[in-house]
Amino acid sequence: MNIMGVFVVLTFVIFGVSSTGAPTLTRTYTCEISDDKTTRGSLQILYDGEDFIRLNLSTGTWTAANLQAEQFLKAWEHAERNAKYWTNYLKSGCIEWLKQYLTYSNNVNQGSHTLQYLTVVSSLNATTTGQVDGEIFVSYSSSDAEVIPKTEWIKQIYVDVPDYWQSEKSRISGDHGDLQHHLRDVEKIQKTKGEGSGPGAGSGPGAGAGPGAGSEKVLIFIIIFVVVFSVGVVFFALIAFCLQKKCSTITRCQDFESVPDIMWHSEEK
Ligand SMILES: *[C@@H]1O[C@H](CO)[C@@H](O)[C@H](O)[C@H]1NC(C)=O
Ligand SMILES: *[C@@H]1O[C@H](CO)[C@@H](O)[C@H](O)[C@H]1NC(C)=O
């Protein structure tokens, strides 16, 4: 195999592996029934662990946490409709499910109760967990592509809601698709920010990771280069050595001149 080929492949592998600290979107939504039967809800999305957008339930609109989030909302065609959908869902559908889950789990504790779903997506994978009062009762990861029951009580839901698992599966995987689509849009905005804005561009979240990660890559690159280069030198030295040895033991170098042209060519092949 060609040495340059090895070099390129090695570089590709190492750069590929070191860049799997892929950016993520994390979405958390919660609905809550308080002791006095009033309800509350919230939904927020983080980009790479930093506040990005959140839903304002009193207005039914999104609030952006920074400039990139504002750009994202502007570019998002269905932002308004989506905000209305979630506002409505957190005030009604989510509360209905919470009541059902409390019934299934025989949770008759006084006080407030919450239903929460946490979803983390990267370009490579996605996971969702559902919790009632902090107890995980279902999970879903894109690698299994199934909703997994995590408590005994949720398994009983079959009896009353036979298509629960199937409809949860399509709801969550559809959700993952949407969030991964959003992630790509956010990435595009992040990229143009990096190219465009000159000084001060380093102030955003995640900017700190740049220089450190960059110099690490350069170092890895140099190490690979040195290793491959050394291997190459040794390889050629070995070939040169063998040729010379062959020439001194078999033919004696002086005899080369007397070897007919035709033999010389066939030996080279
Ligand atoms: C998903 O990918 C991220 C990196 O993008 C990784 O940290 C995480 O462990 C992965 N999760 C699963 C369940 O594979
Ligand atoms: C929602 O928006 C209203 C009106 O702009 C504002 O007064 C309120 O503080 C916002 N609520 C949250 C939780 O941000």
Automatic annotation (TrEMBL):
Any single GO CC term annotated in Swiss-Prot or TrEMBL for this entry: extracellular space
Gene Ontology biological process terms from the UniProt entry: immune response
Gly residues: bias regions: 195-209
SUPFAM superfamilies named in the record: MHC antigen-recognition domain
Annotated signal sequence range: 1-19
One Pfam family of this chain: MHC_I
UniProt name for this protein: MHC class I-like antigen recognition-like domain-containing protein
Species of provenance: Silurus meridionalis
